[in-house]
Amino acid sequence: xxxxxxxxxxxxxxGTVSGPGPAGASPLPLATSGAGSGIGEGRTASTGDAAALPxxxxxxxxxxxxxxxxxxxxxxxRSAGRSRLAGIALMLCSSFGGQLxxxxxxxxxxxxxxxxxxxxxQIGSATLLGLFVRPKLHxxxxxxxxxxxxxxxxxxxxxxxxxxxxxxxxxxxxxTLEFLGPLAVAIxxxxxxxxxxxxxxxxxxxxxxxxxxxxxxxxxxxxxxxxALMWAFYILLNRSVGRHLPGVEGxxxxxxxxxxxxxxxxxxxxxxxxxxxxxxxxxxxxxxxxAILASMVPLVCDMLALRRVPAGFFGTFASLNPVWAAxxxxxxxxxxxxxxxxxxxxxxxxxxxxxxxxxxxxxARAARAxxxxxxxxxxxxxxx
Length: 384
Description:
The chain contains twelve helices and two strands. The chain is an all-alpha fold and 384 residues long. It has one domain (82-363). Strands 1-2 form a two-stranded antiparallel ribbon.
């Protein structure tokens, strides 16, 4: 969940951001600004140097073809609106599909156990991504291999800890605690006072959510927090991999390396935890569904959504992950949360919305200002 880089020097900048989570690195231009920063090309709206409106000249006077300029800009605006709605739908599909995949994985615990489901998910994801992306592993340099291996190890540890935690403390609680990873990355990369307050609020939310006591499953909570740490590492590593490998090739390469590494683990696990022959088809079906829903669906949806919405909004929409997990855990797995747990989860989700929405909205406003200026210049050039 890369919300982009924030300019602190007072002028808006154009950066390149990577897609969140399993989307890999899909570069997207993003205008971001810090508090009090300029708009567009470093000029502030408060100084009176606002962008010319459609149908106006640079000095605010009506342009000769004002009507045509407005008509010319309305069409792209409507198209952009439809594209934005499609991007929102894709982000909803990505977050829901990912958590549905985790739910399907939990359904397979009685058959294969958490380790067995992780093995099938990793091997299945590697197979699917290898077939569809076909990364050129033989062309990777030594430095690229090191980054890919680090990303593969992070993915493996993260998914293992998540599934082991789900088995002990439930899906909703696990995903909410895991969500602290990207939230911490967003807070630590910010210099806003309000984000520091959000960090404190998130800490309070964790205490309310977990309700530490003699009967608490500290091992399950610890596993979820390790998964959160791994998710933070994944975000930082994915940025590095995205700078060295194009598109989703880095993510696909890491998935393949992870899948290959899990083959001997899967052999050893199922040798010591045999599954009845008549249950093998059901187990394999759940494993394949888990790989598709938890890996392929978010990958494809995030890639398509990145072309339609500012990347900063991914952090805000990712706030739905704990909500989807809690609802699906309740409906499908029968894991109901107490009022206190819902309250703690709500505090953590709200903290993430506050941290990510502000920069995303500022970036969107700056992008609209730049687009408006560009449209006005084109209209003025046609009039001349």
